[in-house]
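Action item from last meeting closed. Structure (103 res):
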């Protein structure tokens, strides 16, 4: 399954404006972010605190909905979810996603 990832603001310094990536059905948002960070130097530091928690100034949206209001980093990317995925780094985040990535 293809997922289109769009980046905004200063995240464009470390990842292209729009990236298409193949993921297996059922992959999570966290898994997608790990894949993206592996392929883009500096993206991990731009998105995550050293503890693996998403930075407070980062908003991760899928279908225009912040993952904080879904299942966080364990939200699955499935056929029922649009392939549009956005990364925004802005002041005034809606809150920290409780999950964390184990690096």
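Sequence:
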């Amino acid at each position: 399954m293809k997922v289109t990832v769009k980046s905004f603001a200063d995240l464009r310094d470390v990842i292209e404006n729009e990236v298409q990536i193949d993921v297996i059905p059922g992959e999570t948002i966290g898994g997608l972010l790990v894949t993206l960070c592996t392929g883009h130097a500096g993206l991990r530091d731009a998105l995550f605190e050293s503890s693996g928690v998403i930075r407070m100034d980062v908003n991760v949206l899928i279908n225009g909905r912040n993952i904080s209001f879904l299942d966080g980093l364990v939200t699955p990317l499935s056929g029922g979810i649009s392939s549009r995925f956005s990364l925004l780094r802005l002041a005034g985040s809606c809150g920290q996603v409780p999950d964390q990535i184990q690096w």
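Note appended to the action item: Residues 29-39 form the longest helix (11 residues).
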